[in-house]
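Worked example (supplementary).
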Amino acid sequence: MTATIPTPTPNSVAASPVMNWLNDGWITTRRNLIKIKRVPDILVFTTLQPIMFVLLFTYVYAGVIDIPGSTYAEFIMAGIFAQTVVFGSTYSGSAMAQDLKDGIIDRFRTLPMSPSAVLVGRTNGDLLINSISMIVMMTTGLIVGWRINSSPLEALAAIALLLLFAYALSWVMAFIGMSVRSPEVINNVSFLVLFPLTFISNAFVPAETLPTPLRVFAEFNPVSALVQAARELFGNTPAGSAQSEVWTQQHPVLTVLIGIVVMLAIFVPLAVRKFANISSR
Amino acid sequence: MSYIEAVDLKKTYTPKGASPVHALDGLNLEVPQGTVTALLGPNGAGKTTTVKVLTTLTRPDSGTATINGVDVIASPERIRPMIGVSGQYAAVDENLTGFENLDMVGRLYHLGAKQSRVRARELIDLFDLTEAQNRPVKGFSGGMRRRIDLAGALVMRPPVLFLDEPTTGLDPRSRIGMWEIITTLVGEGTTVLLTTQYLEEADQLADSISVIDDGKVIAKGTSDELKASIGGQRVELSLVSQDDAAAAREILTRFGSTEPAVSLDGRGFTVNAEDAPAALQLILTEFASRGIPLYDAGMRRPTLDDVFLKLTGHTASADDAAATGTENTDAPSSRKAQK
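After joint prediction of all chains, the assembly is encoded as:
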């Protein structure tokens, strides 16, 4: 061990609060990017799982589920997109719980950084993983016969809507993760809640084919609105498909946009406040 | 005014389904600038809660705390740039390398990209982590993690350093390395508040010791003052054979001023004495004339362990050894047994 600590006191670079906030958000995002690089299972899982779903659904169910005026591959892709990005948003929950457990949140909270930065970095990490998943899924989809039947602008809007919805959900999950504090519980509970939520919807079968109680649930299910919005924007709704009576299914894009705004408006401040006051252990 | 000042801090936790715990129960603390104060106490005494309050991590229910005159509770954002914290659980990102961890902390202190890298490299050298700097922390030993964590607290060379049990769970070599670093820092003017359950650590490092139990400071002073507060020297001896225990007890009772205390193995005896050198001479003469062989004999000043026992009725480290699984190396009896 060296005998002295021979350094002059380093100086903070004076910067505006906005620049500091951007810096903090970037640095915590970079931390999560490095994690994706170091723990390749995350990336492998998030790319292989969607490929598996695309292949399983298109080849296993294509023969038994009849979509009038279209193909099952065209129908199913919006459902798989929605399911994948919804599950992708749960990382924020388990990662915040893990960070609390590891004590690194305490380190961050004693630094003169913006209290929202850790959450911004965390949710950005989910956004990146979901973006990669989207590219992988779309490529796989195009190979197995899915087509975009709308304009490039509409297709981009579909992608943006899916990613933004998942991003807003990441903030919800981050808040839940800090409240529950156990990464294992987060993983199990999100599986138990999100799996039925994505399956009792119009994601994998047309909602009108479901028995009445399930159909009612499916029509009001926010995941159905997301799927319907993506389907419309990608031009994957067959001409003669049944029109739902439910408002959220008739205006799916607007519904999803409202959902995104509501989730962000409630859970961004809640999560930031939770982070600022949380005490570990 | 002292650099760090805490007045009448109170904090009560109510764990689910359990009765409330008074983590802090009117704690007062003063740390003068450029000195080391040790908070000494067993697990659950309120050491970590005190550090959490002073480092803006937890708000107390009542009481005030200031660092260099700045109110910790009202202006946490003004406190954070002036403090460094290293906790008993190394708060480092497992997936980042040692270098990346320190670089990240520098960037979050807003040092800028270049200065953060330079500083991270300096600290890596200083803490002997050159070989490990490009490996993820995941593979580090406990001592290395702790060093990275402490290095993280030093990125800004903060004027105040909080060290929460900096050596708990470290092997003796890493512990001594940590002590050297802390001593160096203090030599350069850093004000340190250190918590520890090791009496020896407080003895070695601290200018002033606050003994804390049940959320309150129950005694404070220098190590010497605390020891002096519980009276004079002790005569201590150990027998070769336990068969002589009764005779030894009789002799010590005659020449000492208190009932002799007997160690667990039944061979070690300690007794207070007004004039310890004279008492020791008389005692040894008596043992020699009776032909009782001795393994060891001598005088010693009271240890902090004695202080703790006297003040609280229990030793500082007894419950900790069980709680942390670390061997209790502080109690005189176990030290004797290892000789």
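Two points are worth noting when inspecting this output. Chain A touches chain B at residues 1-5, 7-13, 15, 20, 23-24, 27-28, 30-31, 34-35, 38-39, 102-113, 117, 277, 279-280 (CB under 8 Å). Chain A is about 75% helix and 0% strand.
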